[in-house]
Amino acid sequence: MSRIAYLSDSLIPSQRANSVHVMHMCNAFQELGHHVTLFGLGKKNQDLDQVRSWYGVNGFSLDLTTTRIPKLTLYWHARRMLSKIKKQKPDFVFGRSLYGCALVASKGYDVIYETHDPVRVMSEKQKRAFFKLLESGNLKGLVVLSDALKTILIDEVPKLSPERILVAHDGATIRDYDLSELASYKWPLTSEDRLQVGYLGTISPGRGIEMVVSLAKENPHLDFHIVGGYKEDLTHLNIALESISENLFFHGFVSPREAAMARKKCDILLAPYQDNVTIRSGKNTAEYMSPLKIFEYMEAEKPIICSDLKVLREVLENDKNCILVSASRKEEWQEALDRLVNDSKLRANLAHRAKGDLVTKYSWKHRAQTILKFNELRNI
Predict the structure, then answer these.
(1) How many other β-carbons are positioned within 10 Å of the β-carbon of residue 318?
(2) Rounded to whole angstroms, how far apart are CA atoms 204 and 17?
C-alpha cells in the first residue's frame, strides 16, 4: 500500500466541478488500497465526515488550509502542503495545484501534475510556475483530460515530449443505488406517464440552456428539468422568465449525491454544449474539455443527446453510446428527441452501451489505475 499525497487548490466543499473531481479521484485511489491524503482549502473546524458524505465518498484523509487566514495566497497554501509532505513522506505526490506541485518538485520530491489548461490561458504568474515545474528533474509527467489538450500543449511547448503526457479523460463513480431512497427522492412532474428529460449543470454561457428552454416549450407532452441552477439565473442569459413553460422545473443546486439520484430520475439526458463553453474563470474550454457531466450521464445509464463537438468524439460515438447533433441546430435536437421518445429499444441500447463504456474505460477507479501505472513507468 502506497502513501499518496494529492495536492489541490479546490475549495471543499463547493459547487465547483474541480472539487467533485479531486474528491472522487482520492476516493478511487483509496479504494485501490492506498492511503490517501487530499490537501485543499476549506473552513475551520468542519465536520470532515459530513463533507465526505456530502460528496458520496469515504475513507481518505482531508487536510484543509483554512480560508479564514488573512491574505491567504495559493503560494502560502503550497508552502503549508510542502511542510506536511516533509512530515508524511508520501510514496507518490500527485495533484492539480500548480504552485504546490512546482514548490514540492523544487524541493526534491517527485511529482506528477495534472493540468486542465493550455499555456495560453494561464496568467503570467502561472506560466512562470508551469515552466519552472517543466524544467524540474522531479516532474515525472503530466496528466491531461483530452487528446486535444495534449496536442495543444505539445504545440505550445515543443520541447515537451509526448511520452511525458498521459491522457486520462474525466470519469464517474459507479454507484449502487438504494431503490427505496431513489423512489422517495423529491421529484416534481406534471404527470406520472410523461418521459422526464434532464439537464444537470450550471446555467451559464455556452452550456446551451437556451436549447433546453426552447425544447421544453416545443414539447409540452414531456417534462424537462434543470438541476444545478435557478429560474432567476436565466435572466443572465437574457431569457425572459415569463416565457418559461410550465413543464420546465428548476431544482437549484444539489449535492453530488443528490445529483446522482436526479440523473436516475430522468429518462433522457441533454448536454447541449455550444462552440464557446465558458467556465467561471472566463476561459473557453470547448476545444479541449472533458466534461464531468458526460461521464456522470453515462454512469446513470440513460440515453444522451449531446452536441457534436470534436473533442467530445474522443469519448462519444453517434448512435452507439449517444446521439450527437449540431450544437445550434434546433431541428436536429428535436429530431433526436423524437427518436428517443418514440423508440424505447433505442433508449435502452444507447444507455446500456454508455454505461458499459463508463465501466470499462472511464470510471474514477480505472482512471486512478491508469495514473498509478503511468507513475510506475515514469519511475523506471
Answers:
(1) 13
(2) 14
